[in-house]
Amino acid sequence: MRTLLGPAVEAVFPETLSTPSALLPLREWVAGTDSSVWTHPSPTRFDHKNYRETPPGTALLKPSGEPIPYCRSLANTGECSATASCWEVEAGVVYFRGDNTDGLSLRHEPTLRDSNRRSFAHAGLPPWAFVDWTASIDSLTREALLVPTDGRVTIPVALPSHPRLRFGFGAPAPRLQALPDQPVGRLLIGEEVVWTHTTETDAPWSEHTIDLGRYAGQTVSLTFEATAATAGVQHSVVAFAEPTIITNDEAPRRPRRVVMVGIDTLRLDHLGLHGAPSDRTPGLDARGRTGVVFDNAWAPAPRTRPSFRSALTGLWPLDAIGAPPLTRRFADAGFATAGIVANVHLQPHLGFADGAGWWDYHDSDDAGPQVDRAIAWLNEHAHEDSFLFLHLMDPHIFYLAPEPFTDVYSAGIPRAKLPDRYNRWTIQESMEKGTLKPAHKRFMQARYQGEVRYLDQQLSRLLAHLDTLPGDTLVVLHSDHGEEFWDHGGYEHNHTLYPELMRVMLWVIPPAGWADGPARVSAPVSLVDLTPTLVDLFELPQHGLESSPGVSLAPWLDPAATTAQAALAETLHKRPLQMGHMMFNREQWGVVHAGWAYTLETISGREEAYRFTIDPTHSKNAIQEAPVSTLRQALSEATGWPVSAGWRIRIERPKQPFSLTFEEPVSAAGVLDPEAARTRRANLEWGEVPPRRPADVAEVTVSPDRRTVHVRPGSQPSGTLYVLGPSPTSTARVDAPETPTYTVRPGNRMLGRAKAEIKAGTILVPTHGEGAALAEIGDPRLIEALQTMGYIE
């Protein structure tokens, strides 16, 4: 199998019909019932139905070029929150409140980028890079050959015996609203037309296979052409998705296949092999007995996006942003690649689809349809080397498994007024009001168990189908995180680093099964080990993994490698495993190391430690007995950030700058990110803007001799400063304008005339955040939002 994408192309592209522009005139305003509120159909496509803040790269401009303020509530209330005029986009309609619509225009940078990308004259790319495109129609994103209408792309190909050409065909719509078109695609060999097809703009992909047997053994020129049915249509293109030469050799090699299943929100203790009742997951348990079961596997985060980033790249979550995922590695090795996913955090533009010839996203769909899609794709590629990443949303909230599994465990439990659909916020509100009763909790857990039972049935169906396919199939089953049901007083996920969220399923089932299985591995492993393991097993290039914290677990797939297994177990016992990346609680970071799990809260400095061989559920904080110096060092090694003794200084609205002078040099000083103190932090990848940045709290500098820390209050000067180096017994001299010099130490609650609180303790300072990492990958949909946040200039 060979995909026809690469530098060996010749191309002829049409002359540009017009110069793309980011300014879109708005001339069709309609007055609403309130004559001061106007509506206009959006002339371009937005990524989301609505936005909390101004959409990235977007502005509504007056004729003078002055931007009009954005107001999230205008469409619903008809009122601007703080200004006389404002605007909002809602469900493809632009709303404007003001006196005059004459000359208003919409600036939309994503439209300009899309138009430029479709025009060879403006894309700024060589021909081979211009035609190598990622194209989306509806839910399906594919790697494709881009051909503008009235253009042609020619590729020389040496054909094997019994060759066939397989590809998808479609016409992805531009962002800019345009006339519908029915472009025609043609395929030529030399000058002979061997295929013609007409499609409609944004119609579903169509699949095609052409027998090229009459040209077997020859080197031919394949030409892909496109013509527009409607004259003057701007930025019309067609996409030939995954154009691939396949062969039906009489003696084919046995295909190699990897099916990696990522299960969302599955608690480890809800699997029979990990302690659940035998009726919960009988199908999966039977399969697990033919594989290698890792009993002590950990996620890097209690939420989806960072955990899957690590699983699919072999890097910790922040380092994984922009790194090549497994789909890219397998595609480069000649495998057909696909992702079939159901979580919004796995959308293709977030980087997960790189290298995937087929990335099918269906938000929150059930396991049944997802397994159907997986089986269909596997059947289509049954005789090829292939890699499939299948994501299953079950048993994620709302715990509504299809019948007959909905109430298989919850029947008879009183639910009173508890609705079918709820979320962490409605449940938290009920907890605070005291209206969430023990029966409600039992009902919710039983509904979750029904989801797990349904998941077992659907996954068992998939695994049974794999047995019918030719070749050798390696199966990886893993979860991204667990779910809390008040184990530590909370509910759902993404808010703690306790084991009900952080311990995950990780099973590997080799092609021939495990003769004496299951093989149980007690050594601590992580999702970050999955990519190095598959790279090792399939001898893929290891570029980008030189500094990977993950290790190959392949020795455990070889029953004879007992010496290597013992050595690897010792290495893994000492290796520090990173934990963190929470969104719905105050920031904390953790490490699994040498039989301990240790966590440190960024703002408060609270430390917890648990010896998980003695206290696997983390029921009693053993920080007093823990080897804290070793664990702090392990946390620093796992994160790459300093973990040190020092002072936290909580300031509350000081009006004057001040300085602290210490007897001994300090190693660093600054402002802890205010986001670390919030229990619901901004989602940077959706363009949410944190309400405060470190610079809003204060500007902190250290003198050249490193003895004096200068603090200049910012525009919102309430937050937490840090000084690394001082001990609980250290003192500092305070100098401030119009204030006598005095000395402070931990325990002081004033700095000058302003309230403050000084505490000594252990401090971790994150030096590389998600915002900076997202900026480095250069996704234009994120850049302006990150600039607004102040993460980049």
Task: State the main characteristics.
single chain, 793 residues, alpha+beta, Jelly Rolls, 5-stranded antiparallel beta sheet, 18 helices, 20% helix
Task: Describe this protein's structure.
With 793 residues, the protein is an alpha+beta fold. Among the domains are: 2-18 and 119-247, Jelly Rolls (Sandwich); 23-112, no CATH class; 393-473, no CATH class; 578-639, Arylsulfatase, C-terminal domain; 643-789, no CATH class. The protein contains 18 helices and 45 strands. The strands form nine sheets. Strands 1, 10, 11, 13, 16, 18, 19, 20, 22, 23, 24, 25, 29 and 30 form a 14-stranded mixed β-sheet that branches. Strands 2-12-17-14-15 form a five-stranded antiparallel β-sheet. Strands 38-41-36-45-44 form a five-stranded antiparallel β-sheet. Helix 5 crosses helix 11 and helix 9 (367-380) runs parallel beside helix 11. The chain is globular and about 90 Å long. It starts with a strand and ends with a helix.
